[in-house]
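We modelled the chain as a single entity of 93 amino acids. Its sequence is:
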Amino acid sequence: MSVTHVEGKNAGKVMLYALSTCGWCKKTRALLEELGIGYDYVYVDLLDGDEKASAIQEMLKHNPNRAFPTLVIDDEKCIIGFKEDDIREVLVK
């Protein structure tokens, strides 16, 4: 799976499943960068074949509705959609 890493403060394992055309996904990325959080992301819509299937399978473990953006923290906490207050609460310590 083609994952892109963005350098920043270590707030645990932060993974963003996003769509390249999604405005809420862009807002989530902008918030993470504003907070200076290091994270990984993948644009699921830009993947093909097995890579796309693999990304969707990983995302479904946390978000069976396949909604975007899906932000997964430490493989435990999942925030679906752009929820600025929830993201700040979990990642700003």
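As a brief sanity check on the tokenised model: The helical segments are 23-35, 49-60, 84-91. The chain has one domain: 4-84.
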